[in-house]
């Protein structure tokens, strides 16, 4: 394994220290693994909390800051934080307006979140949980509970964060974020394996001429393998499935994210984005807002996640609100 | 032997911890096939918790296991850490005394299993650690009912755990990170079940030698 | 080669289209290879122009926008644009306040820039050229003209762009940017080879257990090879040379950039940043402002560039001004 | 032969273009050792310009070469493209007539070389294309002065170009992307000099067969 690390058991704490040193005016690390805004939000506004393993930087903690997350509870590499830590963060976040707790649908995250929710309820904390699960790789007929949460959490943070910042009550913040969340779909494609930075081991076994559409968040399989395709063809295969999943119609206002997972260059992501724009405009639909870059990575795995969503005028207005986090800043 | 005291119970888990720590690369490798390649790393953290918590038996056994479960959960051990934490808290909650007879011992393990199942959401056949753990604990119960010794209990339990572990090879995963691989995961062993099988193997060896 | 591309000769035009489609409110592509701000700057303000090959995204064109660049002239992959195209952009930029033309010190870029400057002068365009050359890998005794331009161009764009946006005359914009430029130093380290996306060929021949400090912008060698070192040690080796190069003193206000060149994760970059912060504070110096992420990449090459600079109160104030470009947005 | 007309001059460059296009991977590979791996790609673009510009000779020769040089420069060909563009513009500026004698031919090439050198900043021995080009053009001049035929001029020029190219192997680079490799670049051939050597090789073959 070729990575710039020190002791493998210290990676997570050291990387969080590096994050806080790089953005001292935006974030701080509390209790070793909880990333919090430097200037806490007004307690009369809903606090947004999330949890997840490390190794996916900038996600999740890179989106803590004004207009997005208040607390991100970090586990270890690819490992959910334990329920006790999550409970600790929910207590920190506890405020008069209540807490929205955004959880990606992965076994470990959900186990931890559920236990922490139990503890929080027993403590009388006003917290609502929102599960993201927009990976359609298992098929459209799949129970929504069986879908994984991929990069779709990031725009959900954005919209929930903006609604909370606007002072909306918890039920409203939840309604808006969940409405947007329900109309999301993501597919991931990988071309090369990720290396687990602690074990040094490759995850997966993609051959030299193969790619896999439907890849998971850590290089765990789950999709269709095929020979490597050109950028345009890859984009079309994925886009068509996403359009079907969220039932794209003429005049829809669409969100498009092209999220690089590691070694794939921004150069390539622009080619993919271009193909999506051209193909959607052929279908009479239009991209209202988009983002291209690395938001949620899988170590150095070459590939990307394509995520589409539908805006209504409400969610679009919250997308457009300013935010100021380490890796999403918007005027 | 027909009873097990607190210190021997600790000894069983410490023995399991020692064996599992030798299998970290193997467990990571199994998880690399169908998951995210870190089950060995998870178990390493779980074992470090066990090692530092169970070296003495000064606290009451129930309290000690409850603390250990909580500590394991605090180690950021992904799915497996959370579930094993629950398992230990459950044993702690279900253990009747500092020294227990065979039926009480089986009941304590059943209590651990129930707690784990309650959080897990998995069913037998879902290709998870439960597929090793459930038959193992059923074997403990059955043996205890039949008046077997503690040695005999674990002798049967390890067989059941290992069979359950081997059986995961043919299963289509329905929980955990392997789920999305569907049919393609057939032919691979479940890493969590491997840990459980190693754990019962060590229990058995420890008890046989004790 | 495993990359998401279409025809290799179309990569550059397609990626620029993708950029413009992704940021329609910020940039546009003119004359196929010139990236320009969507809303042109007031002609009474100095325009900032740069040039360079593609394949380094987000640089250079990802920094076109309010508060940074006005025009970026793009060549092909790793190839400078020809002088005719550069001249065309200088004509577009020509305005009453004049043009600052920022060029990275690479043979092709400089050849093209010099010819375009000749043509521009003949045309009566008021343009001043600023050369960035902060790569210290060739040694501190090396003639400054023989040093390559690496990621240091990006903070120079920022400071020049902010000074121009503030309405300063050309000479002043030049003075401030050049003052900052003179106090910059960069070193690059690579762990794996880049693949040229057109030839499909690996550039360089790093062995499985080697890294190279002093690597160039395209994977061309130039430094010392050694066995792979931990993050901290790598950071210390590089940092010490940079501190010597710009003569870091107690109470200096430093800029620190950790620029990922491709496959190296943000996780690792944070570890490196942390080591720099700790080591600098041991030396009694402090990081005033920093950035960590991918600014100027070298395809999927694993590695990073560490760039340090010294602020004075003037350059620091321009660093802190807002900007709104595709890949550097600041409130 | 003692004169060269416009159409034969075009033929020489078209022949060179054809040979160079067959060596694109080789030139990329050379550049991968000491540079950024794209010199073949650069030359491919240069050759495409040559092919589309020189298929007819309706414009005056000086004008045609000047246009070609500008077109090559517009192809985003990095250092080499810019320099070769200058070279052709220089030949265009220095060529005396549609049909030139040996001394005029040598003078035209000298004019191209001077233009290239003026932009380049490189000196002989810097491990660049100049190390092949300078001796080649000096050979042309020397042969012309000695009253040689055009065939003899190119026969000597190709030898000089090739020797110069081979000599780059031992040189420490002082310009271009290889510069920073310093001593480590010794042992590698310069890709730009390779192109120049192939170009003169083709000139010679074309003239010999014409
Ligand atoms: N819901 C569940 N119920 C029971 N066991 C589970 C469940 N989810 C995962 N597991 C077990 O956990 C193992 C994976 O553990 P580990 O790799 O440590 O965690 P993670 O999946 O979070 O990376 C699987 O092999 C499986 O046996
Ligand atoms: N200043 C210079 N003078 C003469 N030749 C040069 C100079 N710089 C580079 N070259 C030549 O150009 C070649 C590289 O060309 P190419 O790879 O196409 O361009 P780039 O270096 O921009 O990628 C070198 O091998 C060298 O012969
Ligand atoms: Mg995990
Ligand atoms: Mg795992
Ligand atoms: Mg080049
Ligand atoms: Mg080159």
Automatic annotation (TrEMBL), chains A, C:
Q: Check the record and name the Pfam families matching this protein.
A: Dak1
Has UniProt tagged this entry with the keyword Transferase?
yes
Highest taxon of source: Bacteria
Residue ranges spanning the membrane: these are none
The biological processes this protein is annotated with in GO are: glycerol catabolic process
Give GO cellular component annotations, separated by semicolons. Answer: cytosol
The answer on whether this UniProt entry bears the keyword Kinase reads yes
Residue ranges occupied by any DhaK domain in the UniProt entry: 7-328
State the UniProt keywords alphabetically: Kinase, Transferase
Among PANTHER family, the record links this protein to: TRIOKINASE/FMN CYCLASE, TRIOKINASE_FMN CYCLASE
Q: What is this protein called?
A: Dihydroxyacetone kinase-like protein
Species the sequence originates in: Reinekea marinisedimentorum
Automatic annotation (TrEMBL), chains B, D:
**SMART domains found in the cross-reference section:** Dak2 (SM01120)
> Could you tell me the keywords of this UniProt record?
Kinase, Transferase
GO biological-process terms attached to the record: glycerol catabolic process
- Superkingdom per UniProt: Bacteria
GO terms (molecular function) for this protein are: glycerone kinase activity
Checking InterPro entries in the record gives: DhaK_L_YcgS, DhaL_dom, DhaL_dom_sf, Dihydroxyacetone_Kinase
This chain's protein is named: Dihydroxyacetone kinase-like protein
The species this protein belongs to is: Reinekea marinisedimentorum
């Amino acid at each position: 394994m070729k990575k710039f690390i020190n002791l493998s058991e210290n990676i997570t704490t050291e990387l969080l220290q590096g994050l806080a040193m790089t953005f001292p005016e935006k974030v701080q690390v509390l209790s070793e693994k909880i990333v919090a805004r430097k200037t806490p939000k007004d307690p009369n506004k809903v606090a947004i909390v999330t949890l997840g393993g490390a190794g996916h930087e900038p996600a999740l903690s890179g989106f803590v800051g004004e207009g997005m997350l208040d607390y991100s509870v970090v586990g270890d590499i690819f490992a959910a934080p334990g329920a006790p830590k999550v409970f600790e963060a929910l207590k920190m976040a506890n405020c008069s307006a209540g807490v929205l707790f955004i959880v990606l649908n992965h076994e470990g995250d959900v186990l931890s979140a559920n236990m922490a929710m139990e503890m929080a309820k027993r403590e009388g904390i006003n917290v609502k949980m929102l599960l993201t699960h927009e990976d359609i790789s298992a098929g459209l007929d799949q129970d929504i509970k069986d879908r994984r949460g991929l990069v779709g959490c990031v725009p959900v943070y954005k919209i929930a964060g903006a609604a909370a910042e606007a002072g909306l009550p918890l039920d409203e913040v939840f309604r808006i974020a969940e409405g947007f969340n329900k109309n999301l779909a993501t597919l991931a494609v990988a071309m090369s394996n990720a290396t687990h930075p602690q074990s040094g081991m490759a995850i997966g076994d993609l051959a030299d001429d193969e790619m896999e559409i439907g890849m998971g968040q850590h290089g765990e399989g789950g999709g269709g393998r095929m020979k490597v395709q050109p950028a345009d063809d890859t984009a079309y295969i994925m886009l068509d499935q996403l359009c079907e999943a969220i039932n794209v119609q003429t005049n829809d206002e669409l969100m498009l994210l092209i999220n690089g997972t590691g070694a794939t260059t921004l150069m390539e992501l622009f080619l993919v984005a271009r193909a999506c724009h051209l193909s959607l405009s052929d279908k009479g639909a239009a991209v209202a807002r988009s983002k291209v870059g690395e938001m949620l990575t899988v170590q150095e795995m070459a590939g990307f996640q394509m995520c589409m969503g539908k805006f209504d005028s409400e969610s679009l207005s919250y997308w457009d609100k300013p935010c100021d986090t380490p890796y999403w800043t918007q005027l | 032997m027909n009873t097990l005291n607190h210190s021997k119970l600790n000894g069983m888990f410490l023995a399991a911890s020692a064996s599992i720590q030798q299998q970290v690369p193997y467990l990571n490798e199994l998880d690399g096939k169908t998951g995210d390649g870190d089950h060995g790393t998870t178990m390493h953290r779980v074992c470090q918790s066990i090692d530092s918590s169970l070296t003495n038996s000064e606290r009451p056994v129930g309290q000690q296991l409850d603390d250990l479960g909580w500590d394991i959960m605090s180690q950021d051990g992904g799915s497996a850490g959370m579930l094993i934490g629950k398992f230990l808290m459950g044993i702690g909650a279900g253990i009747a005394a500092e020294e227990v007879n065979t039926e009480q011992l089986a009941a304590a393990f059943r209590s651990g299993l129930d707690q784990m199942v309650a959080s897990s959401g998995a069913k037998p056949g879902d290709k998870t650690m439960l597929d090793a753990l459930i038959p193992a604990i059923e074997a403990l119960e059955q043996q205890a009912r039949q008046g077997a010794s503690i040695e005999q209990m674990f002798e049967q339990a390890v067989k059941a755990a290992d069979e359950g572990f081997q059986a995961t090879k043919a299963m289509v995963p329905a929980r955990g990170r392997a789920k999305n691989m569907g049919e393609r995961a057939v032919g691979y062993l479940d890493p969590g079940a491997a840990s459980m099988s190693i754990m019962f193997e060590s229990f058995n060896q420890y008890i046989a030698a004790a």
